[in-house]
Write a structure and sequence with these properties.
heterotrimer; A mainly alpha; B alpha+beta; C mainly alpha; A: mainly alpha; 77% helix; elongated; C: mainly alpha; 3 helical TM bundles of succinate and fumarate reductases; 2 strands; flat; binds FE2/S2 (inorganic) cluster
Chain lengths: 117, 248, 129
């Protein structure tokens, strides 16, 4: 560990990790179940283009989608950073940079997509 | 009272002769059925092998000196009743600590870490004796009481994989003790302690495995205090940067 | 003479020693599935923003054995995440009412309740029932 007496940089993301962890615990199982329904060919009718487009066009829908997607990503990135360390790949800073970059890209992508609707 | 024969597989290490530890089995140790593992070890030491070394003192889960790995689990040997174990019991010194001799470990690292977190009351406003005592309500006491119950047995360090992997990590007991003072209504030393507890070797090496709380014989629940410290440390991090004018 | 012996911790396999460590690692790996699924949804969002044809194509692509297997595994992991997360909430955020702390079971139970309601609401909004 580099600079053991330095104040840790983990709090920067930890708030997002904790918030995202709570949000995903409540919502993600239901979301994955819905995706699974699509995959086995019984997509619920709430997923039709017009319904979903309507939802994503409304400002409240945008806000909900942005919140859920970005927090899921930041939660996942932070926890996976620690998991990689636990699996014995002790390169914390490069790993953190890559994972947070991915979460950042995903966050920007969702903003851009939602903006365009 | 009936008797039961137990095989004790004990990890032995003689620093003068051995280059590494080895298991030695004490076969058919005659044990009473209300005995604990510590009683069986005492029987061996008194009757079979006087060279066997281990620490103990109170025999009642108070002093915290008899911690060992019993069948791979960090346990107080004076609290490990034989009736809960099979006929062959494997006893090793606590994991994550260097072995001094047999079941005796080197605990200097832990003792040093305890002192690092300033585990004593740092009053908000120091009072002279004439000004009277520091008052506290039962509610304020209850807030931190569980964290005062630590007996420094080090089982949590032995259970914590992060301590094993990152020896610099301050670890569950020392950080819990810091938390115990941080949330004491009479204390004002939180910022002072954060200089150590919020570093890379402080609470942020904890990934909430939770093993410390599972093995804790005193129900201190060290894992809980570390999570609460992370929340406090995160709030503090942002406060200091977004509102530099506020004093903590 | 002192000559302390230090036992090495196997850096890559330490978690295989105890069941609780394996469960911990499984909990940490749930993040992989949460992250991948979020990216999948973002891809869907991208398709949605491109219009109806692209969106329907996206739904069609999902209908493959690969995604079925992936999503079943992901579902198991994300449910494990929820359970593991709720079960430790009393430790991270204890609630003191008057003098005493609220029993952990009540805090955990409340989270499970909200989880059930949230799941039903999401499934209802998606038109599952
Ligand atoms: S001998 Fe004192 S705690 Fe076991």
């Amino acid at each position: 560990m580099s600079g053991s007496s330095k104040i840790s940089n983990k709090p920067i993301i930890w708030g997002l990790f904790a918030g995202g962890g709570t949000l995903t615990a409540f919502l993600t199982p239901a979301l994955v179940l819905i995706t699974l329904l699509v995959a086995i060919g019984v997509a619920p009718n709430g997923l039709s283009y017009s319904e979903i487009h309507g939802f994503a066009s409304h400002w409240l829908g945008k806000l909900i989608l942005f919140g859920v997607l970005s927090l899921s990503l930041w939660h996942a990135a932070h926890r996976f950073r620690i998991a990689i360390n636990d699996f014995g790949i002790r390169a914390d800073i490069p790993v953190a940079v890559v994972l947070y970059l991915l979460a950042g890209i995903g966050t920007i992508m969702s903003v851009v997509y939602l903006w365009g609707m | 009272m009936s008797e039961r024969k137990i095989n004790l597989e004990v990890l032995r290490y003689d620093p003068d002769k051995d280059s590494e530890p080895r298991f030695q089995t004490y076969k058919a140790v005659p044990c009473q059925d209300d005995w604990v593992v510590l009683d069986a070890l005492n029987y061996v030491k008194d009757n079979t092998d006087t060279t066997l070394s281990y620490r103990w003192s109170c025999h009642m889960a108070v002093c915290g000196s008899c911690g060992m790995m019993i069948d791979g689990e960090p346990t107080l040997s004076c609290k490990a009743f034989l009736k809960d174990y099979g006929d062959t019991i494997r006893v090793e010194p606590l994991y994550h600590f260097p072995i001094e001799r047999d079941l005796v470990t080197v605990i200097d690292d832990f003792v040093e870490k305890l002192t690092k977190v300033k585990p004593f009351l740092i009053p908000k406003q120091p009072k002279s004796i004439e000004e009277g005592e520091y008052l506290q309500t039962p509610k304020q006491l209850k807030k931190f009481k569980q964290y005062t119950l630590c007996i420094n047995c080090m089982l949590c360090y032995s259970a914590c994989p992060q301590y094993g992997l990152i020896p610099d990590f301050l670890g569950p007991a020392a950080l819990s003790l810091a938390h115990r003072y941080n949330i004491d209504s009479r204390d004002g030393g939180c910022q002072e302690r954060m200089k150590v507890t919020a570093t890379n070797i402080g609470v942020w090496e904890c990934s909430f495995v939770g093993a410390c709380s599972e093995v804790c014989p005193g129900h201190v629940d060290p894992a809980s205090s570390l999570q609460q410290m992370k929340i406090a440390s995160t709030v503090d991090w942002y406060k200091k940067r977004l509102m530099p004018w506020s004093k903590s | 003479m002192r000559n302390p012996y230090t036992r090495e911790i196997p850096k890559y396999t330490w978690y295989l020693r105890q069941g609780r460590y394996v469960r911990y690692m499984a909990r940490e790996v749930t993040s992989l599935f949460i992250g991948l699924h979020a990216f999948l949804l973002i891809c869907g969002l991208g398709a949605l923003s491109q219009g109806e044809v692209a969106y329907n194509e996206f739904l069609a692509v999902l209908e493959s054995p690969f995604y079925v297997v992936f999503l079943i595994v992901a579902l198991l992991f994300v449910i494990y995440h929820s359970i593991a997360w709720f079960n430790v909430t009393p430790q991270a955020m204890p609630v003191q009412v008057g003098e005493d702390f609220l029993p952990g079971g009540i805090i955990i139970g409340a989270h499970y309740g909200i989880w059930a309601v949230a799941t039903i609401v999401v499934l209802f909004l998606a038109g599952v029932f």
